[in-house]
Amino acid sequence: MIIIMKMNATQEQIDTVKTRVEELGLETHLSSGEERTIIGIVGDKSRVVEDNFIRMTGVERVMPVSRPFKLASRDFHPKNTIVNVKGVEVGGEQIVVMAGPCSVESREQIFEIAHAVKEAGATMLRGGAFKPRTSPYSFQGMGEEGLKLLAEVREATGLPIVTEVMAPADLPLIEQYADVLQIGARNTQNYALLKAVGRSRLPVLLKRGMMSTIEELLMSAEYILAYGNENVMLCERGIRTFETYTRNTLDINAVPVLKELTHLPVVVDPSHAAGKWSLVGSGSLAGVAAGADALIIEVHNHPERAVSDGAQSLKPHRFAELMQQIKGVAAAVGRNV
Ligand code: PEP
Ligand code: MN
pLDDT tens-digit profile of 72-125? Predict the structure, then answer.
C-alpha cells in the first residue's frame, strides 16, 4: 500500500502519517520527490484501515499496490490449477461439461437424465438436493433422500456429482455423498460457509454472486484457499443488470478477465445466465470460445413438469445436439471435449 501526500503537505504532516503507520507495527519507505512525498508501507496490513489514512491532514490518496487476493492470484501461482474430480480434470486441455437437472425430483427423473447426459458426452452430473429458492413456499429440495439418489446414480453411471451446500450445518451430510460442493450465487459472500468448505477435502464450484464484482468473487475464492482447500473452480452464471429480457446478463468478459487474474479453472453456467432454454446454446458456445474450462448446463427430461428452472432446462436431445456444437467450438480454440 502507498500513501500519496498532497503537493503542499508539510514535513510535520508527513511525519505524523509516518509515525501512525509505524505505531501499527509496519515499516515505511519514503520517496520524497520534487513535487510530493509518497509513503510506501510494508508488513502485515490486516489491522490497517485505508480510510483512516485518507482522513489525515496532508494525505491525497491511499492506493493498494498488490492485489487484495494472493492465493488466488496468477502472480502468486502462474501455472493453471487443474482440479481433479474423481479422474475428471477441470482446467486442463479438455473442456468438461457438467449437466443435469436443477433439482433432484425422483429416482426415475435423475436416472433418466443422468443416462441421457452421459450418453451425450457429459462427464459430471449436477443436481440440487438443497435448493436456495427465492420463496419459502417453493420446492426446497429432497434433502438427504435426494443425496442418496445422486450417490446411487453415480454408482450406476460413474458420473461424479456436483451438488449445492447452503449451510455449514449441512456440510457433514453432503460430504458423504457429493464429489463437488457447489456454492450458489446467493452464498458467494457467506463467509462462514466459505470457511467451512475451505476445511473440506472436496473440490468446490464457487458461483459468482449476482451482484458480485470479479474481485469480490476472487476474494471469496481466497477464503476457501486460505482455509486449506486448493481445489476451487470459479463459475460465471450471469449478473444483474438493467436488462430484463434475460434472467441475468452473462458477463462473458469475466471469463478472459478471470483467466488473466487467477490460476483457478473457470466454469460458465449459461442456464442461470439466460433463464430461457433457447439461449443456453449460444451462451455455452460463447463461454467455450472465451476460454472457459467447463460448462454447467441444466437438462431435464420433462422441463414442462420440472419443480425448478424448467424454463431454462434443455431437453436431452437438444443437449446432445449442443454437445456436437461445443466440440466444434472447442476444436476451433485448441481444446477438446
Ligand atoms: C443452481 O445451480 O440451480 C442455482 C441455484 O444456481 P445459482 O446459485 O447460480 O442461482
Ligand atoms: Mn437451477
Answer: 999 888 999 999 999 999 999 999 999 999 999 999 999 999 999 999 999 999
Distance (Å) of CA 30 to CA 42, 45, 95: 11, 17, 49
Atom 3 of ligand 1: nearest residue by CA position: 102
Q: Are 161 and 226 within one domain?
A: yes
Ligand number with the minimum distance to the CA of 275: 2
What pLDDT, on the 0 to 100 scale, is given for residue 44? 84
CATH number of the CATH domain containing 29: 3.30.70.1140
Distance 153 CA to ligand 2 centre (A): 19
| Residue 296 maps to a domain | yes
pTM of this structure: 0.89
**In the predicted structure, residue 65 carries a pLDDT above the cut 80:** no
Q: How far is the CA of 101 from the centre of ligand 2 (A)?
A: 7
Same domain, 57 and 168: no
Residue 95 lies in a domain: yes
Domain hosting residue 53, numbered range: 2-63
Final residue of a structural domain among 30, 63, 96: 63
Banded pLDDT at 40 (limits 50, 70, 90): confident
Q: Where are the beta strands (DSSP E) in the chain?
A: 2-5, 27-32, 37-42, 59-63, 83-85, 88-90, 96-100, 124-126, 161-164, 180-183, 204-207, 232-236, 266-268, 294-298
Ligand 1 centroid–CA 185 distance in Å is: 6
Question: Which of 134, 163, 207 most suits a substitution to test ligand 1, by most atoms within 8 Å of the C-beta?
Answer: 207
Question: What domain count does the chain have?
Answer: 2
Helix (H, G, I), strand (E, B) or coil at 11: helix
- Domain assignment present for residue 78? The answer is no
